[in-house]
Amino acid sequence: MTARLGLGTYRCPDVAEAAVMAASRGADWVDTAPNYAGGRAETWLAVILAAYPDLRVSTKVGFVPASARHIGVRAGALSTADAERGHCLAPDYIAWQLVRSRRMLGRVPDLVFVHNPEHGCPDGEITDRLYNAFLALEEACSQQIISAYGVATWRGFSSGLFDVPTLIELAAKAGGPNHHLRAIQLPVSLVHLAPVAQALDGHGPLADALAAGLEVFASAPLHGGEIPGMVTPELSELINPGKTPAEAALAVVASAPGVKRVLLSTGNAEHWGQAAETVGRPSLSPDLLRRVVDVLGT
Question: Domains in the chain, please, with CATH?
Answer without folding.
Answer: 4-296 (3.20.20.100)
